[in-house]
Amino acid sequence: MNAMGGWFRQFTMKMAVALRRFMAGRYGTDRLNMVILCAGLGASVLSMLIPVQPLNLIFWALSYVLMILAIWRTLSRNTYKRYQENRKFLQIFDRLKDRQHRYFDCPKCRQMVRVPRGKGKISITCPRCRERFVKKT
Ligand SMILES: [Zn+2]
Fold it and tell me: From the CA of 109, how far away is ligand 1's center (Å)?
């Protein structure tokens, strides 16, 4: 029994080392991947629940595409690009959560500008390049 336990422990340790070696230099998982996976699972559940012929096939295909995308991102070696994707996603997520402000991109330099909501039409000056533009808040 003890020898068996020792063998098992050694096996799991070897597996852990192999996994770590396999994942070395690869991106791994992040919040965006979690959302993609959840959306994939949701699509897969929907495809089973919806009895309408073309619609359930679309959700079924979508669930596969999303899950493959999540796995591909996890194994990707282009960690910088994956990190940027996640950062952008979190930024959009934060914007959606923020009900007090509106976000605009400067038309000249793409700098993100945050202004309070519900002020009507206002003239915004970009903090980076001083470009002025009018937006409805
Ligand atoms: Zn600007």
Answer: 4
